[in-house]
Amino acid sequence: MSQPLQRSFQNGLNKVSGSEDKVYKEWEEDFPQGAEVARRFRIVMDKIDETFGRHVRSSAFSRKALFHTLFTFYYDLLFGIGSSLVRQHPNDLPEDIVYIVQEKSDQILHGSLDEELAKVLRGATGNMGSRKLRLEFMKDIATRATA
Cα–Cα distance between 114 and 2 in angstroms, integer? Predict the structure, then answer.
């Protein structure tokens, strides 16, 4: 489990200061939340596989950058971006999670998106603002579906 991923879980979508080398050196010997980060990673991957796994290859989320967005979306639903890394039971996913994710995939592949969002979805995930826009895009329909 990578320490930068742990930082994302703990600090949210904010930019991690310093280089990855600096982060690795900081956590090289002592990574107290490692077991919880690994557990959450496995839970998120399992939930993606259980719910949308058979559709990933034919969806917009087959691209690495967009799979990262899908992972972040699931993590946010299950645990909350920026939540404490104290062991907690994951939240339940919305009953219509497959519909939500498929709808977002269809919008990316075939929908009419505003130019800024389309550009963000085509690009890489390295920019903090882009990561936030991607997550907001994913959360939009989920919020409406659960409201």
Answer: 34
